[in-house]
Design a protein that fits this description.
single chain; alpha+beta; 24% helix; cilium; Flagellar P-ring protein; bacterial flagellum
Length: 383
């Protein structure tokens, strides 16, 4: 009887201990989350060799427009295209004065995705080439789409969808969007495939979208750690070459490689767009200890002319305009030098520049002056 009670007590004590440990594990996972990682997938920072789009272009005719097409007198290429098309359909219009405003010559563009198969469809973009005012309601006739080698890879046709419109009266014109451009979803059928056997490759190259020595080496290290063999090596800042291990399916290998996470490195760079006043400062930008003073000279000239008239019923004198000019000069004498400490972080740099009370335009000049003084440890790129 005593041993039975002891075994029961030990079982109950073990169950209680297990419950306590489980609760502690739950609380630990809830209250102490794992640190967030800034790593990116390889598929988001690099492209695989051969996996790319191909550009297609073609010349076509859009018909069915409501008087918003090309003026055939000012667009001879549209007239010739219309005459040639009618001749192919058995209609002879040579020597006949054709006056139609329902036809427009257009350029048709599309992107042929990688590994696209014959018979599948792709979207096409249609843009007016002549004097057409709108493509709304038009239909694109059969248009061959050519690649860079001059071969036909797709054929487009269909109803043009236009997002904009144009309404015009005698005193006012309203235009929304660009009515001379449109799209045809699934408007082209692929007729020719681009041969590329991915599974027969012995080596695969990864092309970095932002070439960098450090990022290329990190990608090679991540791939080698996953494969357990030195199969990847960077050949230059923008390329990592991976040797396919024997008896390995290339598609499965690339699927696994593109999911690996790597933290890309970046240059210390400041990008400036002087046209719009946009400033983008990279995370690695550092500034040596420097003192900054910013001030501007503002001159405001105000003209308030006054009219001087003679006294009532006066026989002498005449009405005259007397100029009154008020000139104000603001030299920003209240501005003082500001200190920006050396080796500051991006947040501290932004806070220091904002503390000077300046706008984006003046900040551009200050950053360029800091760079000229040798205190900005970054590259300035002006767009």
């Amino acid at each position: 009887m005593t041993s039975h009670r002891r075994r029961f007590s030990l079982r109950r004590l073990a169950a209680v201990a297990l419950s306590v440990l489980t609760a502690c594990a739950v609380l630990t996972g809830t209250l102490v989350p794992a640190p967030a990682s800034a790593a990116s997938r390889i598929k988001d920072i690099a492209d695989f060799e051969g996996v790319r789009d191909n550009l297609l272009v073609g010349y076509g005719i859009v018909v069915g427009l409501d008087g918003s097409g090309d003026d055939l007198g000012d667009a001879p290429f549209t007239r010739e295209s219309l005459v040639s098309m009618l001749e192919r359909l058995g209609v002879n219009t040579r020597g006949i004065d054709i006056d139609s405003e329902n036809v427009a010559a257009v350029m048709v563009t599309a992107e042929l995705p990688p590994f696209s198969r014959q018979g599948s469809r792709i979207d096409v973009a249609v843009s007016a080439l002549g004097t057409a005012e709108s493509l709304l309601g038009g239909t694109l006739l059969v248009t061959p789409l050519l690649g860079a080698d001059g071969e036909v890879y797709a054929v487009g046709q269909g109803q043009v969808q236009v997002g904009g419109f144009k309404a015009q009266g005698q005193a006012e014109t309203v235009t929304k969007g660009v009515p001379t451009s449109g799209r045809i979803p699934n408007g082209a059928i692929i007729e020719r495939e681009i041969p590329f056997e991915l599974r027969d490759l012995n080596q695969v190259k990864l092309a970095l979208r932002n070439p960098d020595f450090t990022t290329a080496r990190r990608i090679a290290q991540a791939v080698n750690a996953y494969l357990g063999t030195p199969a990847a090596a960077p050949t230059d800042p923008g390329t990592v070459q991976v040797s396919v291990p024997p008896n390995t399916d290339v598609v499965n290998l690339l699927t696994d490689i593109e999911q690996l996470r790597v933290e890309p490195d970046q240059l210390a760079r400041v990008v400036i767009d002087e046209a719009t006043g946009i400033i983008v400062i990279g995370d690695n930008v550092r500034v040596s200890r420097v003192a900054i003073a910013q001030g501007s000279l503002t001159i405001r000239v105000t003209e308030t002319p006054q009219v001087s008239q003679p006294a009532p019923f006066s026989e002498t004198g005449q009405t005259a305009i007397v100029p009154r000019t008020d000139i104000e000069v603001d030299e920003d004498e209240d501005r003082r030098l500001g200190i920006v400490e050396g080796g500051v972080s991006l947040q501290e740099l932004v806070d220091g520049l904002n503390a000077l009370g300046i706008g984006p335009r003046d900040m551009i000049s200050i950053l360029q002056a800091i760079k000229a003084a040798g205190a900005l440890q970054a590259e300035i790129e002006v767009m």
